[in-house]
């Protein structure tokens, strides 16, 4: 349950985000009118660079989450079978926390409006 539920929730939320990005691209860039030709199979809509970038970022964050917190759960499982030093568990938890920190930093770096807002606030704070 510890692995399945976050994976399910993450997949559902990321799927909705991707569908929203895809529909917003189609609203911003409507399809163009094509000239009728004798071609029998029309082109399928391509995935834009923006959609690929969002998909890459989602996959990266998901893999970071699993890679960061997976060792914690593996250490817990192994500790039932074999004696493990408590410092190993602490290092695994530290890895998970650093992973969450890197995901948060990644989200701040990718959100241009938030980054600009925070930089303006920091600049006004130091000007006083």
Structure description:
With 128 residues, the chain is an all-alpha fold. The chain has one domain. Helices cover 77% and strands 0% of the residues. It contains 4 helices and no strands. The chain has helices at 4-28, 49-81, 86-110, 112-127. Helix 1 (4-28) packs antiparallel against helix 2 and helix 2 packs antiparallel against helix 3 (86-110). The longest helix has 33 residues, at 49-81. The termini are far apart. The model has no long low-confidence stretch (mean pLDDT 82).
Radius of gyration: 22 Å
Mean pLDDT: 82
Share of β-strand residues: under 5%
Q: Looking at the structure, what is the overall shape?
A: flat
**Count of runs of 4 or more consecutive helical residues:** 4
The counted number of beta strands is 0
Question: What is the percent of helical residues?
Answer: over 70%
Calculate the terminal CA-CA distance, rounded to whole Å.
Answer: 51 Å
Strand-and-helix sequence, N→C? Answer: HHHH
Largest sheet descriptor: none
Number of domains: 1
Structural class of the helix and strand makeup? mainly alpha
Q: Unreliable runs, pLDDT <50, ≥5 residues?
A: none
């Amino acid at each position: 349950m510890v692995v399945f539920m976050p994976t399910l929730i993450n997949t559902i939320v990321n799927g909705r985000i991707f569908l929203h990005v895809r529909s917003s691209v189609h609203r911003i860039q409507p399809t163009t009118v094509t000239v009728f030709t004798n071609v029998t199979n029309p082109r399928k809509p391509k995935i834009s660079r923006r959609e690929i970038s969002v998909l890459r970022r989602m996959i990266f964050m998901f893999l970071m989450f699993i890679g960061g917190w997976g060792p914690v759960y593996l250490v817990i499982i192994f500790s039932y079978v074999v004696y493990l030093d408590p410092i190993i568990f602490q290092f695994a938890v530290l890895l998970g926390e650093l992973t969450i920190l890197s995901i948060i930093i990644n989200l701040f770096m990718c959100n241009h409006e938030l980054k600009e807002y925070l930089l303006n606030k920091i600049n006004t704070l130091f000007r006083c």
